[in-house]
C-alpha cells in the first residue's frame, strides 16, 4: 500500500495529539518536526507550563465547546485505563463572584461559573454548593469531578505513543511553512499540519496577526490542597486569577495565576508571585493548615507561560499555501489539553477530506 507523507509542525499537546490520531491510519507516514520537544522548558513552548486540568469554558456555538465535549470521554478513558499517562481524578470547586463579571478573568471563566452550566451532562457529580460551603467572599459555587494532568509525564507519554506508532520525531526550526515537507523523514510530504501555537504569529506563509500571548504566572508547591479550586477573579486586579490544582503522580500543586493579554514577558514577577501564594492560602486553608500563612508553603519553583491566544478562537481549517496543503490547528489559548482530542479529530477529518479529493483516501 502506498503511503502519503504528512508532517506535523509543533510538538506541544496539540501537535503530538494530532500526530497520534493521524498515525492510526496505516496509509499515512507521519513526521513531527518542532523547535521544542517534551522535556524542554522555554517561554515559546506553552504546553509544559500548563496546569493542566479540565474546566470547560467553551461558549455556545464555539468550536471550543464542541472540542471540549469530544475530548472529555477520551481524557476520562486515559485516566481510567492508562495510569502511566500521569492523569488523575480530582474534585473541582468553582467559586463565583458577581463583581468579576466583565473582567479579563471573569470573561474567561464565564461559562464555568454558571450554576446551570452546559457541561452538567458532561462532567460527573456536578452539584451546586450551599452557602455554607462557599468562602465568605464568593456568591455562587459548583463542584464536579474532573482531572488534573502532570504535564511532565503526559507530554513524554504522548511522544512515546507516537514513537510506538512509528512516527518520526525530530528537531527543526522553520522560518516559513513551506520548509516543513523537507523535514519529513523521507525528505518530502504532501500535507502539512500547522500546530505551532503562539509561533504561528511569526511563521512565514501564515503570520497570523490575530494570535497573541496571554501571559500566565504560576507557582509549584509540595503542599496538597485536597481538591482543585478556582474563582472568577480577585481583588488584586482584573487580569489576576486564583486557581489551585494538584498534578498527578507527585507533580506538585500548581497555584496561579493571571491572564495578561499581549504580555510577552517571560520573567517571574516576584510581587505577583507573593499575591498568587497569598490568594491560594486564603481560599484553601488545607494548603497551610497550621498557621494559615504563605510561609507554610514549600515552593518547588515559580514559572511563566504564554498561552497561545487567538482573537477568533481555535483555528482548524485547511488551506493551500503555495503548492502545499496545510491543515491548521492552533489558537487554543488556556484550554489546549481540554480541547486537544476534539481538535485533533477535526484536523484528521480535514486531512481525510484532502486525501479523498486527491483520490488517496486513507484506510483505517
Automatic annotation (TrEMBL):
Gene Ontology terms, MF aspect: D-amino-acid oxidase activity; FAD binding
**Residues that coordinate or bind D-dopa:** 243, 307, 334
What are the UniProt keywords, alphabetically? FAD, Flavoprotein, Oxidoreductase
Names of the cofactor(s): FAD
Q: What processes in GO biological process is this protein linked to?
A: D-amino acid catabolic process
One Pfam family, please name it.
Answer: DAO
- The superkingdom listed in its UniProt entry is Eukaryota
Start and end of every FAD dependent oxidoreductase domain?
6-346
State the InterPro entries in the record: D-amino_acid_oxidase_CS, DAO, FAD-dep_OxRdtase
- List ligand-binding residues for FAD: 196
GO CC entries? cytoplasm
- Record-linked PROSITE patterns: DAO (PS00677)
Q: Which family does it belong to?
A: Belongs to the DAMOX/DASOX family.
Under PANTHER family, the record lists: D-AMINO ACID OXIDASE, D-AMINO ACID OXIDASE (AFU_ORTHOLOGUE AFUA_5G11290)
Specify the protein name.
FAD dependent oxidoreductase domain-containing protein
Q: Which organism is it from?
A: Didymella heteroderae
